[in-house]
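Tokens as discussed.
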């Protein structure tokens, strides 16, 4: 038996490392167990998000966008450039540098806050004990008053398309290719498929996305999703809906995929494949056999509204539990759990968690979709404003997309905001605050937005909800 702690956090992704830092800030003696070994063979903090998720994917989205825009997007601004080249190994190295700087930053934050990093793989034992297996297979047992489980998630694999070297990869593999595939198939038109499909298309690959469902982005407001599908198709992403992969064969020429869609059985020959069909919680070897942690039917650790598991003093947060698999959702759960452990009141509004797909145009949303409001029988009003009528978007030569606001017809309260268009990942914060502050359409309508900014489109969408938009004709009411 080694040291005793007030709190031991298992996993140092955005859920776990934030929980650990907040616990330490609140005066609790805190340790965080993390087993990640990075590309350079070094132990690393930051989890999926920093090492192989949010940050590296956004780094490559940014680099590939700059390349594509420089090569093909500057003529509208009267700028011509010749001979634009993408140096893919340099791009990947730049992404790796960003990752290393950020993961190293968390190590500094742990030291500054007095969080002990226990390197190794942890297993929950009864009586709030954690057994940690180190790099030499040595085992140490730690005990704490509270345990926070934050072991995150992993890519789902499918039997019909097993991963193979650099040819058939999951999202992590697709962040490390040092050359552009001529023809790429992405399996799954979800967030990862669209983001990584966009990266490699911008760099020159011909991209086909096979999606099993008939509806594109079913969780997104369908007016926005339809616009997104149109724009992605126009960019050259060949998205095939209702396409189920049956088999794959790796040959000397690449990969042959067999799939079925409405037209029957088809074959597709590509150089490489990304499997992006969702993620599953990391629960394997999370507990010893005698530890009775309740797991739900989806394989998630069962928690109540405030992230308590069925075991007293054991909490669970992030991708390991219900709710969207998003870094900011996990981090806020981490803060809330830390504050509860420290005896404070806390609150996390799951209804005001934003989602973003970082394609171009970006797709962002918060709150309810129009489909959900219909299904729930809520009387609503909606206001839409296209970026084509925004002075700033025109000046940027980036006018695709729209802002859509949904509000309760009777109380005027904002219930949802959906934005497809330039910088929507930043703009959606207005919607998050409107919902968090229980704001109304009138509140937004009375707010002054700077001119010329993209945020004026939010103002106009609110005005449109009441039939008084100034820069588009209003619908007859
Ligand atoms: P993780 O980040 O998965 O961290 C869990 C940690 O626990 C890992 O470091 C793991 O090594 C460690 N661990 C597991 N088991 C043990 C054990 N037994 N002992 C010790 N340590 C253990 N989300 C967004 O919000 N925005 C984005 O832009 C975004 N982009 C993404 C892009 C990609 C390609 C991917 C794959 C994901 C993306 N996500 C994004 C999702 C986001 O990464 C996750 O929601 C987030 O990382 C979950 O945080 P977490 O702390 O719960 O788990
Ligand atoms: P996802 O659930 O978003 O999409 C997976 C897609 O694959 C779905 O559309 C599904 O219908 C399809 N699919 C499943 N099995 C299939 C099959 N056999 N053949 C063809 N299609 C199939 O999952 P993801 O894109 O893998 O992302 C995983 C998680 O990571 C998501 O929950 C997401 O929230 C998170 N993430 C977030 C961001 C972001 O916030 N920008 C970025 C990447 C990942």
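Sequence:
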């Amino acid at each position: 038996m080694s040291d005793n702690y007030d709190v031991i956090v298992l996993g140092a992704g955005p859920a776990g490392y934030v929980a650990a830092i907040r616990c330490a800030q609140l005066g609790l003696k805190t340790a965080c167990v993390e087993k990640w070994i990075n590309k350079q063979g070094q132990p690393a903090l930051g989890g999926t998000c920093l090492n192989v998720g949010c940050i590296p994917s956004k780094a490559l989205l940014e680099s590939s966008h700059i390349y594509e825009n420089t090569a093909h997007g500057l003529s509208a601004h009267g700028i011509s450039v010749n001979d634009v080249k993408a140096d893919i190994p340099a791009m990947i190295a730049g992404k790796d540098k960003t990752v290393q700087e950020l993961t190293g930053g968390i190590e500094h934050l742990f030291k500054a806050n007095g969080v002990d990093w226990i390197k190794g793989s942890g297993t929950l034992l009864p009586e709030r004990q954690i057994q940690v297996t180190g790099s030499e297979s040595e085992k140490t047992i730690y005990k704490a008053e509270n345990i926070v489980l934050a072991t995150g998630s992993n890519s789902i694999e499918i039997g019909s398309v097993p991963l193979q070297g650099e040819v058939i990869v999951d999202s992590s593999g697709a962040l490390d290719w040092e050359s552009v595939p001529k023809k790429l198939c992405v399996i799954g038109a979800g967030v990862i498929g669209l983001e990584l499909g966009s990266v490699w298309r911008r760099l020159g690959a011909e991209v086909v996305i096979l999606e099993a469902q008939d509806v594109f982005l079913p969780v997104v407001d369908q007016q926005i999703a339809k616009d997104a599908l149109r724009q992605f198709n126009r960019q050259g992403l060949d998205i095939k809906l209702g396409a189920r992969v049956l088999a794959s064969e790796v040959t000397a020429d690449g990969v042959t995929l067999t799939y079925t869609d409405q037209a029957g059985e088809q074959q597709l020959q590509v150089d490489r494949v990304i499997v992006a069909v969702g993620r599953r919680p990391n629960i394997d070897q999370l507990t010893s056999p005698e530890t009775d942690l309740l797991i739900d039917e989806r394989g998630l650790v069962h928690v109540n509204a405030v992230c308590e598991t069925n075991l007293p003093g054991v909490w669970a947060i992030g991708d390991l539990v219900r709710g969207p698999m998003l870094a900011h959702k996990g981090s806020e759960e981490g803060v809330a759990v830390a504050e509860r452990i420290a005896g404070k009141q806390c609150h996390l509004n799951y209804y005001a968690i934003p989602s973003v797909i970082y394609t171009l145009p970006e797709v962002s949303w918060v709150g309810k979709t129009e489909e959900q409001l219909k299904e729930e029988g809520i009387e609503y009003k909606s206001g839409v404003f296209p970026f084509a009528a925004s002075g700033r978007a025109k000046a940027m030569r980036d006018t695709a997309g729209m802002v859509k606001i949904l509000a309760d017809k009777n109380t005027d309260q904002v219930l949802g905001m959906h934005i497809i268009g330039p910088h929507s990942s930043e703009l959606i914060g207005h919607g998050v605050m409107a919902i968090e502050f229980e704001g109304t359409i009138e509140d937004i309508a009375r707010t002054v937005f700077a001119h010329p900014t993209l945020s004026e489109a939010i103002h106009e969408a609110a005005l449109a909800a009441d039939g008084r938009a100034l820069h588009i004709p209003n619908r007859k009411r």
